Each structure stands twice: as structure tokens, then as C-alpha cells.
């Protein structure tokens, strides 16, 4: 229900801001609410249906489902999860993904906070042009950067290391944009008071901006964690050692090949469910911070 709560809250806040424009339709409010909730429920069902199927298949011995009537939980769920985590060492891939994601989140927050601080509060020449250039990096698709980035990582000896899968993702135009929008909403009187009291920029950042931006920072961190956790193509390219791979790539290890040549889909779905747990837990725990972040993006 986390997706439904976020969707409903964002829709409600949008309606509150636009209510003066649509006062003539107040009589249809109840009907609109019913349609919105029905649409949300239908959307949620479509979204979570593959997850339900994956959970069911992960409890079966072979994982082969040929009809709808076979979509019932099996009896091998516990054995499948124990084998995936311990016997096939999937816990190591998840640990690598967690370490990679945390390094990316902390690095992005550090760089983005300093960048947003400079763009909003410093009198820099052409700072609007600089900000547009930062946003322009969003237009560069990741595959375009793979070849030069791979050559650079190999030349400096970063291949097969956490540096290769973390440092390229530390700079984030999206995070800079969100933090800039939030900093612009902070009262100018607060900034002037800090200047009069002789508060320096770093102290202003740590003592004023960060405490006032706690909800936004948590929401942004969750988004960045999910983004980093789901990285697949770049770790697959730059990491050659199996023990240093991340969870998304490690799913291939769980496939296995039976004597008949069939893929062990039950193990694949088991790994897929395991990789879903950490980001889903964060989305549920910090859903309110996510709603606040989405509201900032709308503004």
C-alpha cells in the first residue's frame, strides 16, 4: 500500500493547490475521489502482480508455471531462500550492493549540498548558466558515457573495485535541482540574520540548512539508494571478479543449469524477491519524507 499512499497524498496536495480554479466542480468531488481511488487501486494491482507471481514462484521446487491454476504457493520456499542466501552466497552480492549504495548516497549528498549552497547563496558570475549546464547533464544517456568511462577506469586502475562503481555516480544533477528548489523556499530573513550574526557558509549549512532540510534529505537519500541498488549494466561491465559483484548481476549466478538445460526459475525469483526487500523497506519507513520530496519537485 506504500505506492497507493504516496499516489493519493500527491494527488490530494495537487488538488488543494488547484482547488480555487475548480470551485465550480465542487459538487463532483465525491465522484472524483471514487474515480481516483479506483484508478489507484487498478494501477497498484497491475504494478504488484509481477511481484506476487515472483513470490509464489520462489516457493516452488522447479519454478515452472504453465497455467494460472498453478499460481499457488509451493512447499520449497524456506529451502530455496536458505540455498540462495547461504549455499550460493547471495548474501555477499547483497552486501556489496548495500556498501555501494551507501557510498553513492553519502557522496551525492555531500557534493549536492555544497553545489546547491553555492548556486543559491553565493554571488557567482553566470551561476544560472552553470546551473543550466548541470541540468544539461541529465540529457546524456548513461550508455553514451560507458566507453570513455570504462577506458578511464581501466587506465587509472579502478576496475574490479568499489571506486569504479561508486565515484562515477557521486555527482547528481537531480539532487542538486531538488536541494536548490528547497533552499530557495527558505526565508531570506533567516539568511540575513545569519549574516549579521557572523555565521559562515559551512556553519550555516550544517546548523541551519541541513536541520531545516531533514525531510527532503531523507527522501532524496531513499531515491538515490534505490537508484544505486538497481545498478546492473555498469557493474557488469567494470567488475570481473564474481565475489565483488552486486546483487543485480548476482542474479545470474542463481539461474543454474539443470541437466535438461532449463533455467532454475525458482532460484531466480528467490533472488529477485531478496533484492526487492531493502529498497521496499526504505520506501515504507520513509514514505512521508518521499511525499515531501515529490511535492518539492512539483513546485
If you had to describe this structure to a student in words, what would you say it looks like?
It is a multi-pass membrane protein. It holds the Pfam family BPD_transp_1. Residues 94-286 form the ABC transmembrane type-1 domain. By secondary structure, the chain is mainly α. It has two domains: 2-78, no CATH class; 86-298, MetI-like fold, CATH 1.10.3720. 72% of the residues lie in helices and 0% in strands. The chain has 15 helices and no strands. The protein has helices at 2-18, 29-58, 77-87, 90-121, 127-136, 142-155, 162-166, 173-184, 188-196, 201-212, 214-229, 233-238, 247-255, 265-285, 287-298. The longest helix is centred in the middle third of the chain and has 32 residues, at 90-121. The chain is globular. The model is unreliable at 1-8 and 21-25 (pLDDT under 50).
Amino acid at each position: 500500500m506504500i505506492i497507493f499512499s504516496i499516489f493519493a497524498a500527491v494527488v490530494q496536495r495537487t488538488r488543494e493547490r488547484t482547488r480555487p480554479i475548480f470551485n465550480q466542480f465542487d459538487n463532483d468531488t465525491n465522484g472524483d475521489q471514487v474515480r481516483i481511488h479506483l484508478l489507484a487501486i487498478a494501477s497498484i494491482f497491475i504494478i504488484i502482480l509481477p511481484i506476487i507471481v515472483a513470490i509464489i514462484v520462489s516457493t516452488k521446487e522447479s519454478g515452472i508455471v504453465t497455467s494460472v491454476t498453478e499460481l499457488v504457493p509451493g512447499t520449497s520456499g524456506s529451502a530455496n531462500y536458505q540455498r540462495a542466501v547461504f549455499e550460493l552466497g547471495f548474501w555477499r552480492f547483497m552486501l556489496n550492493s548495500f556498501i555501494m549504495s551507501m557510498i553513492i548516497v553519502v557522496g551525492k549528498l555531500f557534493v549536492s549540498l555544497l553545489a546547491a549552497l553555492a548556486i543559491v547563496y553565493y554571488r557567482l558570475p553566470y551561476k544560472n548558466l552553470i546551473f543550466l549546464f548541470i541540468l544539461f547533464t541529465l540529457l546524456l544517456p548513461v550508455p553514451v558515457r560507458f566507453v570513455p568511462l570504462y577506458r578511464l577506469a581501466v587506465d587509472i586502475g579502478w576496475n574490479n573495485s568499489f571506486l569504479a562503481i561508486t565515484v562515477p555516480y557521486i555527482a547528481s544533477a537531480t539532487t542538486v535541482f531538488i536541494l536548490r528548489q528547497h533552499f530557495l523556499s527558505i526565508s531570506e530573513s533567516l539568511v540575513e540574520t545569519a549574516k549579521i550574526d557572523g555565521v559562515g557558509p559551512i556553519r550555516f549549512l550544517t546548523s541551519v540548512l541541513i536541520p531545516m532540510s531533514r525531510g527532503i534529505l531523507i527522501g532524496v537519500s531513499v531515491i538515490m539508494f534505490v537508484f544505486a541498488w538497481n545498478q546492473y549494466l555498469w557493474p557488469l561491465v567494470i567488475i570481473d571478479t564474481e565475489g565483488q559483484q552486486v546483487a543485480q548481476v548476482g542474479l545470474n549466478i542463481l539461474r543454474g543449469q539443470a541437466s535438461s538445460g532449463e533455467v532454475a526459475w525458482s532460484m531466480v525469483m528467490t533472488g529477485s524477491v531478496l533484492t526487492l526487500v531493502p529498497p521496499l523497506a526504505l520506501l515504507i519507513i520513509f514514505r512521508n519524507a518521499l511525499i515531501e520530496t515529490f511535492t518539492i519537485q512539483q513546485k
